[in-house]
């Protein structure tokens, strides 16, 4: 099958300026990241805070301007589209944020907030729009009266469901979910994850699910990509990443996730030191200062992808020639 979204060599570099405005260097927030998302599937993008996963997600919607690479949505490169074409594609590409409180206007009734999206895209007559919003709110467990309530009248979990409703009103194909459950209690997290899965099934949705939490990702993703300092260091099916992780950094992330199956026995990995600054990333493998297996080669040479299986690849010298 052809992917719904194919990202090739995505790059986002930020210039860093000194106090007098001179360019001092650049932060390679996202460097040479490639992955594909298929219809009805979920791609989990994981890594610690600051690894570039949110920037990668936002670049795909051009909320931040990418500095390199391509992103083919249904075969068309989003990055080179004209504004009019991009506006059409944006209906199919929506986003859910960690904190819906910051994305919902506190002074606006939630029904009006959701309906606004329809108005911007000029969809339906006014009376139809209101009914469409009410129908969707009901589908997500709200009642008709909730249409006229304000965001502060709802709990965190309810607000996230309102954020989901707003992302769904245009009937999109792909939703970029950036830490959508990280601010919620564990019991509410499970409800939201189940809701996302149910909606995926009913509406044939695809998700790019961005999270620092591998135990959340395992419940929703079909494939997982692990990012470290702007690079995708390992990618595989969820099964491959959890049962047969190869990159020492993936193993480190997994060591804090409880095992579910016996096949997931984890080798404990102890990393040294802190995450380095992305402004001055280490030479060679960016993980070498923290990696217990680092050799001289790791300090000099940046590892490229080594293929483990048709769906599993890793950037680590332990597996290359
Ligand atoms: Fe560790 Fe070397 Fe592999 Fe990097 S390339 S993860 S330093 S063994
Ligand atoms: Mg983030």
TrEMBL record:
GO terms for biological process: peptide transport; transmembrane transport. It comes from Priestia koreensis. Keywords: ATP-binding, Nucleotide-binding, Transport. Belongs to the ABC transporter superfamily. This is Peptide ABC transporter ATP-binding protein. CDD domains: ABC_NikE_OppD_transporters. GO terms for molecular function: ATP binding; ATP hydrolysis activity. Residues 5-254 form the ABC transporter domain.
